[in-house]
Design goal:
Blueprint lengths: L8 E5 L4 H12 L3 E6 L2 H13 L4 E5 L5 H15 L4 E3 L16 H25 L1
Parallel strand pairs: 1-2, 1-4, 2-3
Length: 131
């Protein structure tokens, strides 16, 4: 693979598994330094160790993207560790609650909105401050 992202710094939310982890792996193989986030500290630690074992320069942080302060802390980790941010991927998301609207608990609905919509907004705002 060509090192198209050599020395770029990429932050990937929802980066400890699934599509987010695949993005982190692909970016790392292309030469990027990657910073991943997930709500689970354990998942982040395991994914970072796996990325590093495969030769990536990687760091990570447990982060609820619906909380602006936590997203800002993620950006600060990237800057403290690798000096800057070049790429930001808003990949974190959760499945919406299913069923008749009248029976969906409002807390479940609001959690989905907070993660999928507010989290994308938070990531975009924080990334733009550093670009």
């Amino acid at each position: 693979m060509t090192l198209l992202l050599l020395n770029k710094v990429a932050v990937i939310t929802g980066g400890s598994r699934g599509l987010g982890y695949a993005i982190a792996e692909t970016y790392a193989r292309a030469g990027a330094k990657v910073v991943i986030a997930s709500r689970s500290a354990r998942s982040v630690d395991e994914a970072v160790k796996k990325l590093q074992h495969n030769g990536a320069q990687a760091a990570g942080l447990a982060c609820d993207v619906g909380d602006l302060a936590q997203v800002e802390a993620l950006a600060e980790l990237a800057i403290r560790t690798f000096g800057r941010i070049d790429i930001w991927v808003n990949n974190a998301g959760i499945s919406a609650p299913y069923g008749p609207t009248a029976h969906v608990p409002s807390a479940d609905f609001l959690n989905t909105v907070n993660t999928n919509i507010v989290g994308t907004y938070n990531g975009s705002v924080v990334a733009l401050r550093h670009f």
